[in-house]
Write a structure and sequence with these properties.
Layout: E1 24-25, E2 45-50, E3 56-61, E4 66-70, E5 75-80, E6 87-92, E7 99-103, E8 108-112, E9 117-122, E10 133-136, E11 142-145, E12 150-154, E13 163-166
Parallel strand pairs: 1-2
Antiparallel strand pairs: 2-3, 3-4, 4-5, 6-7, 7-8, 8-9, 10-11, 11-12, 12-13
Length: 176
Amino acid sequence: MNNSLAVFFFVVILAGHSASVSSAAPTDNQNAPKVFMQNGHSGLIQTMALSPNGELLAVGDNSGAIRVWDTALRKEVYRIGPLAMPVESLAWSTDGKTIYSGDARGFRGAHDPESEKTVGAWQPLRSGKEAWGIAVRRDGVIATGGLDPEIVIEGIPGRSEPLRLPAGDGTRALAF
């Protein structure tokens, strides 16, 4: 596996709307798109995550929608939501079959893009504040952080309870 990160740029174009992106997740896929154009989000884009194989881009906005775009065809292929709250963070499972989201209440969702359904939701952050960062490790361990003064790490082999690490004033982004 090549450990170097692919450099990619996203050009976000919203039909009739201005856009801002608060976070984007890189990939180590050397075939990542150089330019990506999308239309149709009704809310401000909050976050993006590229699938492990570089073929799909999940985009979350403040209307609560998660749209999944085919990077080669440059068209929307799946739509999840709108969810109850704005989507603050996104991360793909390592097999590319699940999208994890963090929302403005500190909830995390697990979504199946092919069925366009939410398959699980829970609140790892105790405060109920924004879940700004989410990361998935290759073995499926998931970390969530945000305005909460802790980072929650779940799915650690041999550990039944989540690991809660102090985060001071909060965490804006996470990565493994």
